[in-house]
């Protein structure tokens, strides 16, 4: 029997948290194995990232936006057509689209080789689709 209701949501959130932690661990291992970064440097990077995330969340709340990908979508929908989100936030894709943005779900945490290239490819593909969907403001002034 499958878990339903709140238990399923908690389990899914736990799975996403575990996935994120596993990605972070793979990234940390790869960075340390390169020999270019010390454990102490990595700790400083992690502290900075956590503090930066907290500041961004606080800023969004102070501006009256939800501190999530949905809040970001609501904030940027008047000026942007597409929002790229990580797979751990995939459950919010429908809400991002309801906020008026095309949503592209793809891995964004560059913990392994190739993720950056696939992220760039996804962004370029989304830009091409978005460009076809968004009228050029100069078109109305051009002679046909």
Overall mean pLDDT score? 77
Q: Supply Rg.
A: 19 Å
Shape: globular
Strand residue percentage: 5-15%
Count of discrete domains: 1
> How large is the count of helical segments?
5
Intertermini distance: 63 Å
Helix content: 55-70%
- Strand arrangement, major sheet: 1-2
Structural class: mainly alpha
**Biggest sheet: strands, sense, closure?**
2 strands, parallel
Low-confidence regions: none
Number of strands: 2
Order of H and E elements: HHHEHEH
Polypeptide structure, described:
The protein is mainly α and 144 residues long. It has one domain. It is built from five helices and two strands. The chain has a two-stranded parallel sheet with strand order 1-2. Helix 4 links the parallel strand 1 and strand 2. The longest helix has 29 residues. It is globular. The mean pLDDT is 77.
Provide a short characterization of the protein structure.
The chain has helices at residues 6-34, 39-62, 69-76, 93-98, 115-133; strands at 82-85, 102-105. With 144 residues, it is mainly α. The model has no long low-confidence stretch (mean pLDDT 77).
Provide tags for this entry.
single chain; 144 residues; mainly alpha; two-stranded parallel ribbon; 2 strands; globular
Task: List the SSEs and their pairings.
Elements: H1 6-34, H2 39-62, H3 69-76, E1 82-85, H4 93-98, E2 102-105, H5 115-133
Parallel strand pairs: 1-2
